[in-house]
Each structure stands twice: as structure tokens, then as C-alpha cells.
Amino acid sequence: QCHQRASQPQPMKAPPGPVAFPLVGSLPAVGLGQITHRLGPPLHRQLAQLAEVHGGVMSVQMGREPWVVLSQPELVHEAFVLKGSDFSGRPMVPSMSISSGSGRAGFARRAPDQRLLALRRVAFSQLFGEDRVEAARSQFVEEAALLAEHLLADADGAVPMRTSIRRCVANMVLRYAFSTRVPHITERGAALQSAAHAELLALTDAIWSELTDPMTFVIDLLGVPADSQARAGLRRLVRKRDTVLKKLIAERRSRPRRPALEQDMLDVLLSSGLPEADIYYTLVDLFVAGVNT
Fold first, then answer.
1. How many Cβ atoms are within 10 Å of 226's Cβ, its own excluded?
2. What is the largest CA-CA distance in the chain?
3. N or C: which end of the chain has fewer CB within 10 A?
4. What band does 224 get if pLDDT is binned at 50, 70 and 90?
5. Which helix (H) or strand (E) holds 143?
6. Which has the minimum average pLDDT: 84-88, 226-230, 231-235, 260-264?
7. pLDDT value of residue 239
8. Could you tell me what percent of the chain has a pLDDT over 90?
9. Using CB atoms within 10 A of its CB, is residue 37 exposed (0-12), middle (13-18) or buried (19+)?
10. Pairing mode of beta strands 65-70, 57-62
């Protein structure tokens, strides 16, 4: 009987953390600073304060989802570098699930599997290899210079600074993935931009605004399902983005293959042998998460 008990898998003990309540989880301890600064400090500061009490590895119940929060650099390094293969999955709140295909493809998977390992091999050896990143460096420098020129031309601040910086970073991603860019409104020839790529950037911005809206944080925390009417606006934006991005992928696939030195990220993905869903959601991850990171 003792042997039977010892051989049975035992539930893992959760790290210490603030008290969790039904439905709202650790919200009383985490606070509502994510919604507005008037209701408390920002989420990252509140979590840092809680870590001083509960330690660098802390359990936080975000609504109905248990999260583990790491608050020390050496712990983050251990989890994501030294033991990266064990911690390559990602938590998936309902709003992010809508945008990233429910965590079934791309890098934003709930848990690591063989397809994710294959995607990571392609990413490290081809998509973000040292030679490819170095070749793109001059384009990034040029894009930064174009941002500076735009800010000087827009001295009266007609375009918010944050919007201009997002356009700069989004253009870096566009150049890396699609060999194109969408000009700032102050640039000569701005009207000659690619309509499809401009629409993709606009939809990406709109989706991120929805994902970071305080109301989205609240309904995620309460565990409102992805198919709820409360999320209809986000689902509509994602459908539009899917249509535009899939059209761009199909258009590139119909062209003759370019020489290796001229290939961008999409060319590499299309020739990698990866499943179609991984090709698509790798690009989604790059535009939604990569731009904002």
C-alpha cells in the first residue's frame, strides 16, 4: 500500500503567493492599477511589491487561471535559458487566444510539442540566424533615420510620438518579413504605399489596442469565454487581419522563388516545409507580439 502511494504521481505544490478568491482570484491583492492609475499602482509594480513578501517565484491566480510570476533575473534566466525546453509554452488568456489561434500554432503555444521544436530550429538556424539579422541591420538603421526625419517634419506634433515610434518598429518588421514598408505621412510618396500592407499595420494596431484595453483585462480576469459577445469587436478585427495576411501569403507563394540572398522571412517560411498554420501564426506573433515588445 505504501509502495502504491509512492508510485502514484503526486500533485505539484504551488509556490507561495497572495490569497485567491472564487471568480476574482488574486485581484484584491493585485489591485486594479491595470485599469486606471487612480485605482492603484501599475500591475508590474504591484507584482514587484508582492514578490518582496512571497519571494521571487510566486503563484498568482489571475481570475480562474493559475500563473507563476518570476521576479528575479537569475530565475528568469534559469527558466527560459537553462531550462528553456521545459518552459517554452505560454499562458493563453481568452483575448490572446482569439488573436493567436488558441495557442495551436506559431510560437504562442500553451505547451511545447514536436511542432514547436521544429519551428524553433527553423527560427534559430534560418529566420533569425546571425547572418540574416546582420544583413537587416542597415535597413533598421535607415528606418530609424526616417523616423528622425519624420519627427522633425512633424514638429507641431500632429502625429502622437507613440504612433510614430510604432510605425518605425512596424516598418522594421515589414522589411524583415515582407521586404516592404509603409511610409510616414510626412514622407514624399507616402500615397504610393502598399494598400494591403498599410491595412495590415492598421489592423495590427487596432488589435493591440483591444488586447491592452482595461475592459479586456477585466473580462480576461473574470474568465469570460472567447466566444462571448463581449469579445465580438476583437473577433471581427482578427477576421479582417486573417483575410489580409493570408492574401499576402498567397500572393507571395504564386511568385517565382527569389535567390537566397534576396529572400526575406516569408520566403524562408514558405520554403521551410513547416505546416501552413505555423507559417501564418509565426507572422502573427511577429506583428502582434514582436512589434509591441
1. 15
2. 80
3. N
4. confident
5. helix 130-153
6. 84-88
7. 92
8. 16
9. exposed
10. antiparallel
d(CA 178, CA 264): 6
Please, what's the b/e burial string for 86-112 (b: 16 or more CB within 10 A of its CB; e: otherwise)?
A: ebbebebbbbbbbbbbebbbbbbbeeb
Type and span of the H or E element at 119: helix 114-122
| Predicted local confidence at residue 6, as pLDDT | 40
Q: Where are the beta strands (DSSP E) in the chain?
A: 57-62, 65-70
Instruction: State how far the Cα of 111 lies from the Cα of 129, in Å rounded to an integer.
Output: 24
Residues in the chain: 293
Neighbours of 202 (CB within 10 A): 15
Nearest to 164 by CA among 175, 174, 178, 150: 150
Nearest by Cα to 35 from 224, 213, 205, 219: 213
DSSP 109: -
pLDDT tens, position by position, 47-74:
888 899 998 899 888 767 788 888 888 9
Q: Are 190 and 183 in contact (CB under 8 A)?
A: yes
Residue 265 or residue 104, greater confidence: 265
Q: Look up cell 512589434; give the residue.
A: 291
C-beta atoms surrounding 283 within 10 Å: 23
Grid cell for residue 147: 523616423
**Is the alpha carbon torsion for 283, 287, 291, 292 positive or negative?**
negative
> What is the residue whose three cell numbers read 535567390?
259
DSSP state, residue 257: P
CA 250, chain centre distance (Å): 23
Please give the Cα distance from 182 to 167 (Å, whole number): 8
